[in-house]
Input
Amino acid sequence: MDLSEYSIGILKNISEKIGMKVPEPGRAVLYLILALLAVFVFITIIRPVATFFMNRRKRNRIISKGMLFWKDFEKNWISSWRGGRGTSGYKYQDGPGCYVILIYDNQPRGRGFRRYKDVYVGQSIHVYHRVHSHFNGKGNGDVYADIKYGRQAYVRILPCSEKRLNKKEKRLIRIFRAEKSYNRTKGGGVRR
Output
C-alpha cells in the first residue's frame, strides 16, 4: 500500500463519518498536500508573527503600568526613621518576585519608555533587596556601570509566589528578549 492509497483510505473514512462525498483518488492526494502545506505555512510564518505581536503587547503592558526611576527607588529605600532606626520603605517590603530593569540613554517621556536600549530581568525571594544590590554595584555589573556612567535606569517589580519565580522569569526574558542584552541565560536558575 503506497501513500496515495493510504491517504485515500483516511479521507474515505473521514468523509463517511461526516456525510461528505468521497473525492476522486487524484484529488484526495491534492487535498492532503494542501493540508500539509497549510500546516507548514502556519508553523513557519503565521505562528512566529503572532507570537511577536503578543509578546510586544505584553511588554508594552508591563512598561505602561509604571516604571520606577532608580533614584526614586533608592530614595525610598528607607523612607521613615524613628529613634535612629528605619521603620518603612522598600527595605521593609521584601518578598518573592521578578523584576525588569530597563536602561535608556536619555530620560524617556510618554511612549519613549518602549524604546529602551538594554534590559535585565531577574528574580529573587527578596526582590527589593536584589534590585537594591544592582543599583549599588553588588549585582549585575552592566546595570551598575550604566548607572555609574549616567544612563537612565527604570525598574518594574512584579511580585509572585516563590513557586512561580522560574516560570515568570523565563517568560519575562522571552518577552523582553533580554538574552540579547544583559541576561546571559534563558532564566530559571537556582540562585535567588
In short: The longest strand covers residues 97-104. The chain has a mean pLDDT of 84. The two ends are 58 Å apart (CA to CA). Strands lie at 68-69, 80-82, 85-88, 97-104, 118-124, 152-159.
